[in-house]
Amino acid sequence: MAQEPPVGAVNPMRARLRNMGMAGLIFGATFLAYLPAVHGGFLWDDEGHVTKPELQSFHGLVRIWGEVGATQQYYPLLHSAFWVEHRLWGDSLVGYHLMNLLLHAGAACLVVAIMRRLALPGAGLAGLLFALHPVCVESVAWISEQKNTLSAVFYLGAMLAYLHFDRDRRRSHYYLALGLFLLALLSKTVTATLPAALLVIFWWQRARLDWRRDVLPLAPWLLLGACGGLFSAWMERTIIGAGGAEFALTPVQRGLVAGRAICFYLGKLAWPADLMFIYPRWNVNPAVGWQYLFPLAVLVLLAALGWVARRRRGPLAAFLLFVGTLFPSLGFLNVYPFVFSYVADHFQYLACLGILAPVASMLTAATARLPTATRRAIPILGGVLLTMLAVLTWRQSTQYGDAETLFRETLARNPACWMAHNNLGNILAKIPGRLPEAMAHYESALQTRPDFAEAHFNLANALAETPEHRPEAIVHYEAALRGKPDYPEAHNNLGETLAKIPERRPQAIAQFEAALRINPEFAEAHNNLGVALSSAPDRRPQAIAQFEAALRARPDFAEAHFNLANLLAKTPDRLPEAIAQYEAALRGKPDFAEAHFNLGWVLLRMPDRQQDGLAHFEAALRIQPDLAPAREMLDRLRAIQR
């Protein structure tokens, strides 16, 4: 980090034109490099991040801020941004991708502004390196990672504002910086590392930290960051699921993960080859000697940089910025993705600036000392480097076109990735005729990880499609529940499969009840329990109560309305209630042929509504022409009328 001396006053108009030109170059280059991702579809957990239907109202916005668990992670500003975006362009995914591109390019422009505020050479190169480096593709092309791009804008904006405050000590700049820092924390709490990063910068600038000038103003920031980090760690462990045996690493193992992760990320920055969505998960074994080489290499590098810092603090400051920003994802804290990999490209989105910006500065400073004839070739070499990075980013972006492509590319590079096998199986299972291929991927996932509850569950769902495979389906549902006893969906689906075997109906009822003990608001389990109970005349009142509970949890549940109507229709004085329930089922599912047919039957029993009943039989046949009972009833009614 060589400091560039001032060179005199700069023409303001020329400076504005230069800034506009650089911004235009960054935005244009970013858009072109990421063009393949603009029309990309939903990937993996995108549907869990983009605003769900129950949160799309103004009341939903209140829930985003006031209800922990209403969204996948408690990042209320991020989910408020998604809420606004849904209002602007609804379900059009292009809008979300363009927003990510704009935020990423905006963050790159802020990098340029910060470099210039620090009087560092190579500001434009640093911004372009960040904008075009392929390790950023995962954060920019994946809609869910808008948490990275949005928080980066606030993080870098807060840094820039605080650097202004550090120079002029104006309170307005301090409060602006603090406000932006709060917005960053509410977008993603990895930004809690900002005050530490600022302290590193001040140490680099002044060789020491002054308590009153440097540390005291940032003390509230450090407290806010610590609170945000601890809250996120609690969320990861208790709500998202980053707990259990897979996360029970010893301190030595965590040190081994951290050392290897630092080396990994540095390697991907220097040579961005074989980037992938999910990297292989390391087997961290303290008994294996070579695994200690990674933390040892980090310590040796740190010691060397400390020795160099006696004359030049820049390299050590850069390394501290890089490692400090990576700290939340180095293995000392549990984060859910560790269940399938200890590293991910999106973990180093902000951290990579600790390397890219100083490298750009040092390269630019070094070229200034070259002979004039040699210096003329430098822009060409720089253009070649940036073009190569842009091409790599373009190629990497094509993998994010759709989920099937992404997981196939992941498996091509990481064939043992059980998570990718399972997710690809889920995609294929929804495509007619590709269920056998989906089952093969579930089986591959289980070969790598035999206790993977979700793969057992998904394979069981596929097997349950055909009666002859139901015994195998039951075996896999039970395996899923051994691996994950508090799995309400597995209890429910096992119950559905058992209910199709008459002699096992009591066991089915027990499974539905187990699902409801875990999740009392599980509408499907209430409905299935109601169906199982309704087969016994003496338990019909309990069945009705279950259907009503299902509808309280999910008022638009057409099947629950239909099943409740069927029971109510068995009691003559409750026919009006039955009719209302059939009509509610048809409002939620207008092409529900059986509801039309049963409603027609009920209406025939009411002297003044027989023509309406006839109309519902006709509607049932329009929807399902092979519905023989409706055809027979309609023919008989027409014969009587003639």
Question: How does this structure look, described?
Answer:
This protein is mainly α. The chain has 4 domains: 13-398, no CATH class; 416-477, Serine Threonine Protein Phosphatase 5, Tetratricopeptide repeat (Alpha Horseshoe), CATH 1.25.40; 486-555, Alpha Horseshoe (Serine Threonine Protein Phosphatase 5, Tetratricopeptide repeat), CATH 1.25.40.10; 557-642, Serine Threonine Protein Phosphatase 5, Tetratricopeptide repeat, CATH 1.25.40. It has 33 helices and no strands. The chain has helices at residues 12-33, 35-38, 46-49, 58-66, 76-89, 93-117, 123-132, 137-141, 146-168, 171-185, 194-206, 211-215, 219-240, 251-270, 293-308, 314-326, 353-367, 372-375, 378-398, 403-413, 418-429, 435-448, 453-463, 470-483, 488-499, 505-518, 523-534, 540-553, 558-568, 575-588, 593-604, 610-623, 628-641. α21 (418-429) runs parallel beside α23 (453-463). The longest helix has 25 residues, at 93-117. It is elongated and about 105 Å long. The termini are far apart. The model is unreliable at 1-8 (pLDDT under 50).
SS field, number of helical segments: 33
Approximately how much beta-strand content do the residues carry?
Answer: under 5%
Looking at the structure, what is the overall shape? elongated
Largest sheet, described in full?
A: none
Instruction: Report the helical percentage.
Output: 55-70%
Radius of gyration: 30 Å
Strand-pairing-aware structural class: mainly alpha
Q: How many domains, as an integer?
A: 4
Question: How confident is the prediction overall: mean pLDDT?
Answer: 92
Q: Let me know the number of strands.
A: 0
Low-confidence stretches: 1-8
Measured between the Cα atoms of the first and last residue, the distance is 96 Å
